[in-house]
Every structure is written in structure tokens, then in C-alpha cells.
Amino acid sequence: MTKRTNLDAMHTCKSCSEFDGNGDCSASTTGTCKGVYCTKTAGKMNGKSYETRGCSLVNPIGSNVCSWTDQTFNISMGIDQSAAARKKRGVSLPFRANQCYCQGELCNSSPPSQLASTLLLSIFSTSILIFR
User: Which domain of life is it from (predicted)?
Assistant: First the structure.
């Protein structure tokens, strides 16, 4: 279930991408975007390091939370039409990553351990308020 939020609650988020050493998602990255949620995904795609940070209007996994994903995407390249071999061509692309969504100014700019600590503190604080 996708959680809906007031679109007036837009936040500035860090925006960057890096794949196998190409691009930059370091502390010095200055790119930003605006969104209800800030996102950060870090892991491995096809065995190579991958990181992206950005914005989203929707959050499929819940506010201020991270979710581990381990998937393989099977991409069809069509049918090989050569007379010698009529077989389906495809590519399997493994994707293993930690996907995080948070709300707050530049909340996706911290390193993974700081982001996890911030998210745990937010959840802990919320649970204290709820169960008071």
C-alpha cells in the first residue's frame, strides 16, 4: 500500500547517482531535488557498486524506513532471427540493495550508518509518543 502525503510538505533532498566508479554520490555532491520523500538506494547491480539519491512523491515501503531487496531482473532482447539458431535472447541482471525513504531537509545526505541511526531514533521517538 502506498502512503499518501500532503504535497505541500516538500523537502529538499540530495540528488546524485554513481555506478561502478562513474558519477558522484559523496558528501561534496551539491545536486538537489524537491520531493515529499527523500530516497537513497545503495548496493550492487550486476556485481558492481551502485548508489542513487533523489526525491519521490510516493513511498511504497513506509516513512523513515529502509528495506533490503535482492532481485534478478530478466530482460528479454527479443528473438534471434538467424536461420542457424532461432532462440530467445535475454539478460539476467542481479540487483541487491538497501532502499531508504525519509522525510526532512536533506535527510538522504548522511552516510548509511548515520541514516540508519536517524531512522531508528525517529521510529523509537514515535513509538514512545504512541504508547504513552
Answer: Eukaryota
Write phi, then psi, for 93 (nearest 5 degrees): -125, 100
Determine the Cα–Cα distance for residues 28 and 16; give it in Å rounded to an integer.
11
pTM for the complete prediction? 0.65
pLDDT at 36 over 60: yes
Closest CA to 101 of 42, 19, 37: 37
The letter for the amino acid at 78 is: G
Instruction: Give phi and psi for 114, each to the nearest 5.
Output: -70, -40
Long-range Cβ contacts of 3-9 (<8 Å, 24+ apart): 3/58, 3/59, 3/62, 3/63, 4/58, 5/36, 5/37, 5/59, 5/63, 5/103, 6/36, 7/36, 7/57, 9/36, 9/103
**Cα 75 to chain center, whole Å?**
21
Question: Which three cell numbers, joined as nine digits, stand for 121?
Answer: 531514533
